[in-house]
Amino acid sequence: MKRKIEIDPLTRLEGHGKVTIHLDDNGAVTDARFHVTEFRGFEKFCEGRMLWDMPVITPRICGICPVSHHLAAAKACDDLLGIDIPPAARKLRELMHMGQIIQSHALHFFFLSSPDFILGPDSNPEKRSLIGLYEKNPDLAKKAIQLRKAGQTIIDRVGGRPIHPVTAIPGGMSMALKHEDRFELLKDAAESVRLSEIAVDTAYGILDSYAKKLPSLGNFRTKHMGMTREGSLEFYDGRIMIKNSDNRKADEFGGRDYLDYIAEHVEDSTWLKFPYYKKEGWPKGIYRVGPLARLNVAEHVLTPAAGERFRAYRSLGDTINENLYYHVARTIELLYACERAYELLSDDEIVSKDVRIRAERKAGEGVGVIEAPRGTLIHHYWADDDGRVTKANFIVATAHNNKAIDMSVKEVARKYVKGGKVREGMLNRVEMAIRCYDPCLSCSTHAVGRMPLEIRLCSAEGECIDVLRRY
Amino acid sequence: MKKLRVATGHLQGCFGCHMALLDLHEDLIALLDSIDLVRSPINDVKSVPKVELGILDGALCNSSNLALAKEFRKKAGKILAFGTCAAFGGINGLRNLFSLEEVLGRAYVETESTIKGKVPSSPDIPGMLPHVRAVHQEIQVDYVLPGCPPTPRMIKAVLSDIIGNKEPDIPQKNLCHECNRKHKEMYIPKREFVTNSVHAIMELDEIDPEKCFLEQGLLCMGPATREGCEARCVKGNVPCRGCMGPTTGALEQGAKMINALASILPAGAMMFMEDVVGVGYRYSLPVSIFPYREDK
User: Chain B residues with CB inside 8 Å of A441's CB?
Assistant: First the structure.
């Protein structure tokens, strides 16, 4: 008798998700699926909007990485209109994006993931959150809040608002950075560098103490994809690099050509599509994105402290395929973002008044690609003579990891489901496996509380045999 | 002091409202001294504990959103519609301009990157509602806090009012009230103002940081939009796009904007040279008097 285990509701990915685990007659795991249960329709309702409004409309796709959508949209507009923005505008946009990386990575590492490790994956779920972290280690919790606040403050001062910023417009930026804000941010950035060094140490500490208890959160071979700039880690503007699981280069392309390299597959059971490397087809061409992948495809990290950490990290292997390392990679990127923000703020051009060039509406097609905290983000627009958007296409960061998430869940489920019985501890292990990727869903799980979970063991006829619940 | 029992739930949206709650930063810890956050954020769990206050963000887009909202209504003493999506349907509401078939067809079949697409239809995913709705259109709502997302200052004020058992007080007037930009030309009817006036922001030689956007020929939703957001966009030197939703008593936001333009200058036309619906109703289409396209 074939059976199915459902974890519903699992959590959210820019909304809601659940997991089903399929069992064979002997109760062994045959398959696992991650279902995204939310769909909103931006691909359609952006049609008819004005092109220059896209940087204001699209951040509403995600409240956790709105800056990435804001900037991908602005870049797509620049591309469509054929504009090279002034150097100061480019620096301001990159600075705003560093604020995004800092806030999002700090949020994920400290607020969402670290409670699993610092409080333990089997600790009382009621306490397994920032609130519990605050009770156990108030000093660390305060540092976490401070670091995230530093990121949000950069976005606020450069982007006009901390969530859904507005200042990146086609042709550059709507305003220059104020001198007084520059010095305030510079002071914060120096402190953030120090705090993020602590984050890297904490991540390594976690890895050491969990290496035995938690052997794997998904260790499999896939391609890795991320942006690089002359081989270095890059978030704002560069070429997209794809490497094989043994670190050999598979391909490289500019954002404008993404349709030749990436295609999307649709499955019946989830609203989230499955992008893959087009030349190898589905499902052979799957790859991972995000911190783990970015540090696999990069050859250098150009800031001093993060560069040193990167070399030590990469000495562990040519390509790191174990998902647990997502956490370490994320903190190294956090350190990079703080250092890079400091560098950008130290450059006098950051307060230049020359932040935009005038542009006129025209018909055309444009692509904007950026490395969002969770991976490569692609916006593609077509516009008519009036500047009206006629078509829009988006490939969001978390989608690239869609199949890899399924694979992780399957791997973990195999360890925790034996003979059709679910072992205690599976609920959170499945969550942890998913949480590595930091899909937006993790925000729901620990942000300010706990994630309710229910695993259902059902017969093929849908009859409920066993329920494991955690509220 | 007895803590207020609170649950928060996320319907459909970007999660930015919950992020705005985290933007209380250090004050978040102080807030947790006066509330007991028994569950947050919740997804489509069948059972919600009894609470005194249920906070819902996001709009109603699919069957599980609707089920969660109804469950919250049963279990919570009071319901706060938190943020513009909950209050007015928000940006999700723009989907109501199209049929569900068109929206799904574009995303899963027509998009240029999709190969051999099909519209997902498994019972493992909840069905879409034909039209996006605001929370109060399906359940009774006790308090409303608009904003995309609401500012931390407003969140603090409204929550402390509710904790203190007071009716929350949200600003009533329009954004022009909060905006410090200067205007004088718009009161003088002259033909040039109309003909030279409609621009995209990128087409201006200079974006004047002091002067009213309408006078610079940019469509700004300030006159039809509720104040309280601290005018962050206009301070960021871009025009308002109406994310706080309509003011108290306004029948609807888009028509109010056309009305405002028509009364301050002979340029109701401004609206029609741009994207009338997509700007005027960007955040409030589900609560307008034309909430969705009638399918043939």
Answer: none
Nearest CA in chain A to B198: A386
Convert the pLDDT of each residue in A326-384 to its tens digit.
999 999 999 999 999 999 999 999 999 999 999 999 999 999 999 999 999 999 999 99
Q: Which CATH architecture has domain A40-405?
A: Orthogonal Bundle (1.10)
Confidence of residue B281 (pLDDT cuts 50, 70, 90): very high
Long-range contacts, stretch B188-194, CB < 8 angstroms, 24+ apart:
B189/B265, B189/B266, B191/B266, B193/B265, B193/B266, B193/B267, B194/B265, B194/B266, B194/B267, B194/B269, B194/B270
Taking a C-beta distance cutoff of 8 angstroms, is the pair A294, A313 a contact?
no
Q: Where in chain A is the domain with CATH 1.10.645.10?
A: 40-405
Contact A31, A22 (CB under 8 A): yes
For A64, the token pair is 């956790």
The DSSP call for residue A360 is -
Six-digit token string for B159 = 């929550």
ipTM above 0.90, yes or no: yes
Of the listed ranges A3-17, A55-69, A232-246, B58-72, the least confidently predicted one is: A3-17
Split at pLDDT 50, 70, 90, the class of A97 is very high
Of B43, B98, B114, Cβ closest to residue A11 = B43
DSSP assignment letter at B151: P
With residues binned 3-state (H G I as helix, E B as strand, rest as coil), the percentages for chain A, rounded to 5, are 45, 25, 30
CA gap A177, A245 in Å, rounded: 42
d(CA A235, CA A52): 23
A39–B61: do the CB atoms touch at under 8 Å?
Answer: yes
Q: What HEC string does A61-116 produce?
A: HCCCCHHHHHHHHHHHHHHHHCCCCCHHHHHHHHHHHHHHHHHHHHHHHHHHHHHH
Predicted TM-score (pTM) of the model is 0.93
Q: pLDDT digits over A126-163, tens only? A: 566 677 777 888 888 889 999 999 999 999 999 999 99
Q: How far apart are CA B182 and CA B49, in angstroms?
A: 51
Greater confidence (A162 vs A427) lies with A162
Phi, psi of A390 (to 5 degrees): -100, -30
Q: With CB atoms and an 8 Å threshold, state whether A39 touches B19.
A: no
Any idea which residue has 């609170």 for tokens? B6
Contact in structure between A123 and A216 (CB atoms under 8 Å): no
Tens of pLDDT, residues B84-115: 999 999 999 999 999 999 999 999 999 999 99
HSE toward the beta carbon, residue A303, CA cutoff 13 A:
20
Domain ranges of chain B: 4-93+123-163, 175-287
Q: Tell which phi-psi region holds residue A290, choosing left (phi > 0), alpha (psi between -120 and 50) or beta.
A: left
- The residue written with tokens 């605001």 in the block is B134
Reading the block at residue A135, the tokens are 């009770």
CATH class of the structural domain B4-93+123-163: alpha beta
Distance of CA B157 to the CA centre of its chain: 19
Whether residues B236 and A161 touch (CB distance < 8 A) is answered with yes
